[in-house]
UniProtKB/TrEMBL annotation:
One of its GO terms (cellular component) is cytosol. One of its GO terms (molecular function) is nucleotide binding. Signal peptide: none annotated. Residues 217-458 form the Glutamate/phenylalanine/leucine/valine/L-tryptophan dehydrogenase C-terminal domain. NAD(+) binds at residues 224, 255. Substrate binds at residues 104, 125, 128, 179, 392. Keywords: NAD, Nucleotide-binding, Oxidoreductase. This is Glutamate dehydrogenase. Pfam families: ELFV_dehydrog, ELFV_dehydrog_N. The active site is at residue 140. GO terms for biological process: glutamate biosynthetic process. It comes from Edaphobacillus lindanitolerans.
């Protein structure tokens, strides 16, 4: 790393001691929360030169304040299945930081949801939202509910029970949830309907990711995947490359994955593999996206059924094996820590030139280190997948105006936001001595925007 401009040996030592002290404090206060600690460590490692240049952040205790959520809400969710049996799940909402605007972040329904995962997602959301340049703070929510195999009525009853507890803590100017894993426009619709009933008011801006008939934005479903590819295209262009003809693998087969594939194909890339939680398909001639959409969006079937329509493709059990498929570009879009150091080494050995994250923290730290050490272009999640929350903020704007933009208008605004995020990451990395390291650039740029706001707002 270059010597940080404007910093002396003493200020660098003070900055290092401060960051180390706060991280040790976080570990003591959050024992066993591995995902949360991983996210904190990744951010902290980038920030040492920032504190060397800005001792006012140390004076004002910015890190100590930033790692503590402003509010954590945990509650029981009781619901009844179609046979009349009562079930109990845990619901969560972490309202992490409102310096830049109302809390903003998705709701995740998945059996893995716990305190650590919700806090890691909420902490990451602070910086991701800051990078968009839009006036939104960071939050996250969810429940350890598994929607797989549930009927529409069971999902509706769960969503209604979930929001019956949460509604008093959210609002268009307070906290604006959206979808995430296991939560799409169907679930958002059920929650919005229950909120409207309890609130006795039509406040469309309280949720984003809604169906357009409920005030949702056109282009929201596609936004995270499209934004990921817009960011990747900028990353390639900055190194004199383009996506034309690039063999691409995409983990997952939800909205992010499907629309990343769609946009990448539009840029001339060839998608050779995609996956779900059971396994992956490999189609060297190029995945047929229409078939994937039919299976996943219409029929809700497993990805292995792709072979019913394309018998020349190959299906392999165990979704982690997708990283063994040779490719130029890898887009991990499934879930956290899905790509390990072993998988990263295999990708590098097979000639990958770029990795961009569509999911939240899908690469573990050892994998990221390998990519950076080997000169692989790496697009970190908080920058590369910020397109979804950017369009969510646009949905909030449209709701406030009682107005709707066309899909083309939303897509163009999204493209410009992703270009700005990439440029900000590149320039910030250069400024603080991390030339070419977009992870450090994203961390520092997001942090500085929030930290400057916290300084001007005093103790809160």
């Amino acid at each position: 790393m270059q010597i940080t401009r404007g910093a002396t040996e003493d200020t660098r030592r003070t900055a290092n001691d401060y960051v180390h002290h706060v991280y040790e404090l976080v570990k003591r206060r959050n024992p066993g929360q591995q995902e949360f600690l991983q996210a904190v460590r990744e951010i902290f490692d980038s920030l040492r030169p920032v504190f060397a240049q800005h001792p006012e952040y140390i004076r004002d205790g910015i890190l100590e304040r930033l790692v503590e959520p402003e509010r954590v809400i945990s509650f029981r969710v009781t619901w009844e299945d179609d046979s009349g049996k009562v079930h109990v799940n845990r619901g969560y909402r972490v309202q992490y930081n409102s310096t830049l605007g109302p809390y903003k972040g998705g709701i995740r329904f998945h059996p893995s949801v716990n305190d650590s995962i919700i806090k890691f997602l909420g902490f990451e959301q602070i910086f991701k939202n800051a990078l968009t340049g839009l006036p939104i703070g960071g939050g996250k929510g969810g429940a350890d509910f598994d929607p797989k195999g549930k009927s529409d009525r069971e999902i509706m009853r769960f969503c209604q029970s979930f929001i019956t507890e949460l509604w008093k803590h959210i609002g268009p100017d307070t906290d604006v949830p959206a979808g995430d894993i296991g939560v799409g426009k169907r679930e958002i619709g059920y929650m919005f309907g229950q909120y409207k009933r309890l609130r006795n008011a039509y406040e469309a801006g309280v949720f984003t990711g809604k169906d357009p008939s409920n005030g949702g934005s056109l282009g929201r479903k596609e936004a995270t995947g499209y934004g990921l590819v817009y960011f990747t295209a900028e990353m390639f262009a900055n190194h004199g490359l383009d996506l034309e003809g690039k063999k691409t693998i995409v983990s997952g087969s939800g909205n992010v994955s499907i629309y990343a594939m769609e946009k990448a194909i539009g840029y001339g890339a060839t998608i050779v593999a995609c996956s779900d939680s059971d396994g992956y398909i490999h189609d060297p001639g190029g995945i047929n996206l229409d078939t994937v959409k039919q299976l996943k969006e219409v029929e809700r079937r497993r990805i292995k059924d792709y072979l019913d329509f394309h018998p020349d493709a190959e299906y392999t059990e165990n979704c982690e094996g997708i990283w063994s498929v040779p490719c130029d570009l890898a887009l991990p879009c499934a879930t956290q820590n899905e790509l390990s150091a072993e998988s990263a080494a295999r990708l590098i050995e097979n000639g990958v030139i770029a990795v961009a994250e569509g999911a939240n923290m899908p690469c573990d730290q050892e994998a990221i280190d390998l990519f950076l050490e080997n000169g692989i272009l790496y697009g970190p999640a908080k920058a590369a997948n910020a397109g979804g929350v950017a369009v969510s903020a646009m949905e909030m704007s449209q709701n406030s105006m009682r107005f709707s933009w066309t899909e083309e208008e939303v897509d163009e605004k999204l493209r410009l936001v992703m270009q700005d995020i990439h440029r900000n990451c590149v320039e910030t990395a250069e400024q603080y001595g991390f030339t070419g390291n977009l992870m450090a650039g994203a961390n520092i740029a997001g942090f500085r925007k929030v930290a400057d706001g916290m300084v001007t707002q005093g103790l809160n």
